[in-house]
């Protein structure tokens, strides 16, 4: 058996015959078919990977933003005498930027806010304004505060807090909108805020998430201290 195989190999090696044109065409056609199939498989895999990556990144970013916003909002208080938790739809004009008797004022044009804004006092009684700026970042703006330290009044100027750019994982906030959940669905209590965040990215596409936040210091009643300013 081994001798026969060796003899056939010798004959094949001595043969001067090559492949016919038809055989070569068939070979190239098969190679082309295999390459097309491979490209389709690779393309489909990359699309699935990109979609999974965008969903994962979107979920992580919105979860981080929602946790920070809800952590500020749920213990929200009234803004003081005549003050309420206020949702601003549109421009903000002469906003009292603090809780002192001599507060500075803050004004934001409508095109400086992506979506709308919400103002309240947080658990530490600091005046807070939350919105998304035109750079696609969530801004938590703290108003002026004056504290008595050892008999001396110490004033802290208004300041913007925001996440580091790496926290957005390539996304930007294209819309941050606050609304009363009860105005869209009567099954929600009147002290629930609906927070909608939309993210966009040239590479990752868009992602949207919604969180419902109950304001624990406001009663579920018609006159619950939450107002909307258009």
Plain-language structure description:
The protein has helices spanning 2-14, 21-73, 181-184; strands spanning 85-88, 92-96, 105-108, 117-121, 127-132, 138-142, 145-149, 152-156, 159-161, 172-180, 192-201, 205-214, 226-229. With 230 residues, the protein is of the alpha+beta class. The protein has one domain (46-229). It has a six-stranded mixed sheet, with helices on one face. A three-stranded antiparallel sheet has the order 10-11-12. The protein is elongated and about 110 Å long. The relative contact order is 0.15. The mean pLDDT is 83.
Number of helices: 3
Poorly predicted regions: none
Structural class: alpha+beta
The dominant shape is elongated
User: How confident is the prediction overall: mean pLDDT?
Assistant: 83
CA radius of gyration = 32 Å
What is the helix content? 25-40%
Sheet-strand content, in percent, reads 25-35%
User: What's the arrangement of strands in the largest beta sheet?
Assistant: 9-6-5-4-1-13
- Amino- and carboxy-terminal Cα gap: 95 Å
What kind of sheet is the major sheet? Answer: 6 strands, mixed
Order of helices and strands: HHEEEEEEEEEEHEEE
Q: How many separate domains make up the residues?
A: 1
Q: How many strands appear in the DSSP assignment? A: 13
